[in-house]
Amino acid sequence: MENILAIEQLTKSFTLHNLGKHIKAIDNVSFFLKEGEFVGITGKSGSGKSTVLRCIYRTYLPQGGHIWYNSKMFGTIDLAHASERTIIDLRKYEIGYVSQFLNVMPRTTAKELVKHAIVEMGHDATFAERETEKILEHFELDRSLWDSYPATFSGGEKLRLNIARAMVKRPRLLLLDEPTASLDETSKLKVKMLIEQLMKEGTTMLGIFHDLEFMRNLCDREYRMQDGRFAAAAEERSAYTRS
Known about the structure:
There is one protein chain. The protein has 243 residues and is of the alpha/beta class. It has a domain at 3-101 and 170-240: 3-Layer(aba) Sandwich (Rossmann fold), CATH 3.40.50.300. It has seven helices and ten strands. The chain has a six-stranded mixed β-sheet with strand order 6-7-8-3-9-10, sandwiched between helices. Strands 2-1-4-5 form a four-stranded antiparallel β-sheet, with helices on one face. A hairpin with a 3-residue loop joins strand 4 (64-71) and strand 5 (75-78). Helix 3 (110-120) crosses helix 4 (125-138) and helix 3 (110-120) runs parallel beside helix 5 (155-167).
């Protein structure tokens, strides 16, 4: 099975001008994902985990290294140096991102957000309506909230909506940045069920979780970060091997 993603010597730093400080967030990080894998990154807060994901999604522009992505649309491209137009297209059709936070256009209802994500993939309105209702029901988002604005939602409701919007598109590559951080156990189980379904359908995933129990029986490999570097080579962990 070929690589869908290969990161080579990725480096990202930040300059805090008001403090006169230069902070290296990640330093010469290299790893790979094969198609259909679920790879986990663990480590303490501030170790650089989220920075890796944001560089792949191009929220951050890395200072050095390469992010080789095997795209259906463009072939093999370097996300670290791809054009903004290319990145927009990949986010629209191939690469999904789930974080703890929901950033959406104002005056857009929860149902409209999810439905738009499906229509954006080229599906018709009838299909989009059906799939939207299905995934909102899966995450037990109360029907009374479907036509409400997410700004009024609780933290857990916003997070469930954020996950639903990303997963309903069934991206080729899904980046998960602490997606279960503020969820209760029932909601975590709902996320896990959908992750397992996407895995069966062939979605490749790279996830950050502080909840190691959640990763059990999901991850194929784990990378542990410490001070912006991988503390050790990728580990095939029997505790995380899918049954």
